[in-house]
Amino acid sequence: MKKLLLLLAGVGLLTGVQTSVAGDTYFGVTGGFARTIWAPCWTSDGYADAGNGAFLLEMRAQLPYKEHLFVVPFVSYLSANHTTSYRTGGYEVYDIHTERTYFREISAGVHMHYHLPILGRAIYVGGGPALRFHESGRRSVWAPHQMDTHSGTSPALCILGGWATRIGEKFVTFFEPQVIFSPDAIDRQETYYPPDRLSLQMGILWK
After folding, report:
1. CATH, residue 69
2. Do 62 and 108 meet the contact criterion of CB atoms below 8 Å apart?
3. Which of 12-21, 98-107, 169-178 is most confident?
4. Domain total of the chain
5. DSSP string, 48-100
6. 82, 49 Cβ separation under 8 angstroms
7. 175 touches 163 (CB < 8 A)
8. Closest alpha carbon to 38 in 3, 76, 82, 74
9. Residue-range definition of the domain harbouring residue 148
10. Cα separation, 95 vs 43, whole angstroms
11. Considering the entire predicted model, what is its pTM?
C-alpha cells in the first residue's frame, strides 16, 4: 500500500509539473524491458532462479534547464516473476520442490539529459540519482499462503544515452538504454538489496 501511494504521489507530482510549467516542458510515458544482475559481478548470473528479466513502466517530465540541457524527474515500476523446480532427497527417493519468486520495485529520481551537437541534437547522454523501493518474495506452489518476503530501500546511480525524434511541435519519441548501479548488489535470498540493472526503454513525450 505504501508503494502504491508513492506511485500515485509521483503521478500527481509529474502531472502538476506538466500543467504548471509552460514553454518546452514535456510529459510522457515509457515502457521497456530490464535485465537484472543478481550478483556482485557482472560476469555471473548470481541467483538465476530469482528471475532475470522484467517489464518496466515509467512516467516522466522533461523540463528545460539550459540550452540543450534538461531536468527529467521520473517515477518507474518494475516487476519480475519466475518459477523454478529442483529435486530434494537422494538419487532413488526424492521429491520435486517448485517455488515461485517475484521482485517488485518502484524508483523515483531526477536525471539530467544533455543533447549532443551532432545529428540535429537527436543523441543525448546523461544520468543521475534515484531511490529504489523494492520487495521480493518466494513461496512453494504447494503452500501459497506461506510467503517469505523482504523489502527495503536503496540509492542508485544511473548512466544513460538515447535517441530522440521530434514529431511536429507537440510530440517527441525516444529510445533510451540505461545502466543502473546500486550498492551491495547481491543474491536477494541472502541479502536484500536490489540488483544492478540494464534496461532498454521506448516512449513518447508531449506538451
Report:
1. 2.40.160.20
2. no
3. 169-178
4. 1
5. GGG-SEEEEEEEEEEEEEETTEEEEEEEEEEEEEEEEEEEEE-SSSEEEEEEE
6. yes
7. yes
8. 82
9. 2-206
10. 32
11. 0.76
